[in-house]
Amino acid sequence: MGWSATLTIVWNESLSVTQTVQLIWGILLLGAIQSILTVGIHCCELITTLARDERVWRAASSVNGARPDGNPLKVVLGSWQSMGLLLAKPLIHWVFGLAVSMEAGRGFVISGEFMSALGGGMIAIAAFVTFIGTRRPEGPQPAAFGHI
Questions:
Q1: What span, in angstroms and rounded, lies between the C-alpha atoms of 117 and 123?
Q2: Whole-number Å distance between alpha carbons of 103 and 56
Q3: Which residues on neighbouring strands pair with residue 72, listed in sequence order?
Q4: From edge to edge, which strands make up the β-sheet containing 6-9?
Q5: Which pLDDT tens digits describe the chain residue by residue (148 residues)?
Q6: Which among 7, 28, 64, 88 would be 20 to 30 A from 119, CA to CA?
Q7: Contact yes or no for 48/132 (Cβ under 8 A)
């Protein structure tokens, strides 16, 4: 038997609550945590989309103009920012699912290894989005984009 970095948050036995009630409260709590994670990743997606749209807007105001691609999938797949986030989003949710689980009669089971991986992934996404958000491309930007 080896060492394991697993934290188990056990239900209080003195409450005399059925396992069904425990599972319902646990699912609600797990859903709330997952919702916070999803909203955070969605905000990262908004910043990434803003940077991609800024690049297209700058191209549209240049001498050559922008190419009006009819396929939005080409635009997303052609952007390294969008591709990075497209790969990171399902990975973060997958690692969260491995890090936190709930078992009837046991409570929450939190895996230390996967929680560390989740923390590292979130730090990497935060650094990625901070880089995208603070990077200023060269050249003039049209005032209609919002920066005067």
A1: 10
A2: 48
A3: none
A4: 6-9, 107-111, 100-103
A5: 444 566 666 655 555 667 777 778 878 888 999 999 999 999 999 988 888 888 777 777 777 777 776 677 887 788 888 888 889 999 999 999 999 888 766 677 788 888 899 999 999 999 999 998 888 777 666 555 555 4
A6: 28
A7: yes
